[in-house]
Amino acid sequence: MTKFDSKTFNAEAFGAYVSKIPNVNKSELARSGAVQGNENAKLALSGQSGSLYARIPYFGRITGSTSQNNDGSTNVTSSSTTTYEQGFVVASRMDSWTERSFSKNITAGVDFMDNVAEQIGEYKQEVKQGILLAMLKGIFSMNISGTDVKAKAAKEFIDNHTLDITKETESAVGAATLNRAIQKACGDNKSAFSLVVMHSEVATNLENLQLMKYLTYTDKDGITRDLALGSWNGRTVLVDDGMPAEEDKDGVTSYTTYILGKGAITLDDIGDSVPYEMSRDAKTNGGEDTLYVRDRYICGADGLSFEKPASLVGSASNDDLSDGKNWAVINDGTKHIPHKSIAIARIISKG
């Protein structure tokens, strides 16, 4: 046992306690199904031996748009599926806080473990959202220059999965914007989309049009509070001001809204060998206690592959994840999967 702010600290028990602290945002995001795990990637990368990158099979769909007519005298034409490879990378994160960071928040009647665990649980969610946005930035920054299959697939994906309304008469999102975007991206597969991530400026516009309603929850004291989550056309909405917002030379800002389908993003916490650790420094400032937190996340996207550059060692930073050169639509060098099978899209608007 070690001590933190004169409290007994058990790393294993504390980790379990953090996991049990209710996090409504996290629960609603999980319910949307857009951010999930990948069991094959987890199996390949869950070891504590420093696994960083894995390529796993990605099975293509059967081909053939029409069934062949059997007239009793025609031979059957057979086709086969293609097996591709998909790359997943691990992003390891670490943080620490000294005693004073928490001690000033500990007041009479407030449970120490509950207080610290709740803060760390919420902080971890913010870290994951930052990783998610970095991945999406990278996906929509893929290289589209060139005539090879990789560039052609990237251009096809970005062109079809982007709805830019900034030049339209109605340049802010409206009642039909979401439906237009997901239909353009995936056609008759548009029902796959389940999560929308947007800037508060866009969310406010939807509120004013009475197109979005925020979700609420009631805490243990019976107080009902609004969440940073809403609903738009039946899709869960996450409001995050970390979303891309670019101002042009005239001072007009364009906002990017991302739309994700079920299982579109793999962002799975696979744990660190030492996730929580305490250290006592008896010398500095008359004595300090520091809490260290470490996490490892599998990062990937359905229908897309993270292509690890030789320079990436140890862990993928948010800069690595947001670099378009590190992402590609899954292909085998001669053909790529259909863009309609990738349930990831974006809207660019002026509000």
Detailed description of the structure:
The structure is a single chain. This protein is an alpha+beta fold. The protein contains nine helices and 18 strands. The chain has helices at 11-20, 24-32, 39-45, 99-103, 112-139, 149-160, 177-186, 200-208, 318-321; strands at 2-4, 7-9, 35-36, 53-59, 83-98, 162-164, 193-198, 212-218, 224-232, 235-239, 245-247, 253-261, 265-269, 276-281, 288-301, 304-306, 327-329, 344-349. The strands form four sheets. Strands 6, 7, 8, 9, 10, 11, 12 and 18 form an eight-stranded mixed beta sheet that branches. Strands 3, 4, 5, 13, 14 and 15 form a six-stranded mixed beta sheet that branches. Mean pLDDT is 84; it is low at 104-110.
Summarize the structure.
The protein has helices at residues 11-20, 24-32, 39-45, 99-103, 112-139, 149-160, 177-186, 200-208, 318-321; strands spanning 2-4, 7-9, 35-36, 53-59, 83-98, 162-164, 193-198, 212-218, 224-232, 235-239, 245-247, 253-261, 265-269, 276-281, 288-301, 304-306, 327-329, 344-349. The chain is built from nine helices and 18 strands. The protein is α+β, with helices and mostly antiparallel strands and 351 residues long.
Fold blueprint:
Blueprint: E1 2-4, E2 7-9, H1 11-20, H2 24-32, E3 35-36, H3 39-45, E4 53-59, E5 83-98, H4 99-103, H5 112-139, H6 149-160, E6 162-164, H7 177-186, E7 193-198, H8 200-208, E8 212-218, E9 224-232, E10 235-239, E11 245-247, E12 253-261, E13 265-269, E14 276-281, E15 288-301, E16 304-306, H9 318-321, E17 327-329, E18 344-349
Parallel strand pairs: 3-13, 6-18, 7-10
Antiparallel strand pairs: 1-2, 4-5, 5-15, 7-12, 8-9, 9-10, 11-12, 12-18, 13-15, 14-15, 16-17
